[in-house]
Amino acid sequence: NYVISKKNQFHDTSMLNSRSETKAGLWDPYKKYFNKVIPIGSIAYKLALVSSSKSDMVASLKPKNEWDICAGHCLINESGGKLVTSLGKEIKYNNPNTLITPGLVAGNYEAVNHMVKLIKQTN
């Protein structure tokens, strides 16, 4: 039974992110907002963790291929969550260009909307 985390206050929220993005310093401007920023591999795995409330949110600041996120997108949807691009746009599949750009955000609706605003303000 999948249920998305209800946490929407970033200071209480754990954010899963990319190890390579963290290593490159891309997450430095965001770390101060979250209780924990946890870099781990595999976007599919991170989406599964968020869909089962093992973590509160996941975000990527770099593009991902649609085949890496499509199953996780289903899990997020079934858990009552939201997955959009990091600019807040709906993700569509089977495009000639399979790269989802510029990145993505998943979690509960309120937290995702807040994160999209934060990303837009920071860039």
How much β-strand is present in the residues? 15-25%
The chain-level structural class is alpha/beta
Report on the biggest sheet.
5 strands, mixed
What number is the mean pLDDT? 95
Helix content: 25-40%
Order of helices and strands: EHEHEEHEEEH
Distance between the termini: 37 Å
Number of strands: 7
Radius of gyration: 13 Å
Poorly predicted ranges: none
Strand order of the largest sheet: 2-1-3-7-5
Morphology: globular
Q: Count of helical segments?
A: 4
Map the helices and strands.
Elements: E1 14-17, H1 19-23, E2 36-39, H2 43-51, E3 57-60, E4 64-65, H3 66-78, E5 82-85, E6 99-100, E7 104-107, H4 109-122
Parallel strand pairs: 1-2, 1-3
Antiparallel strand pairs: 3-7, 4-6, 5-7
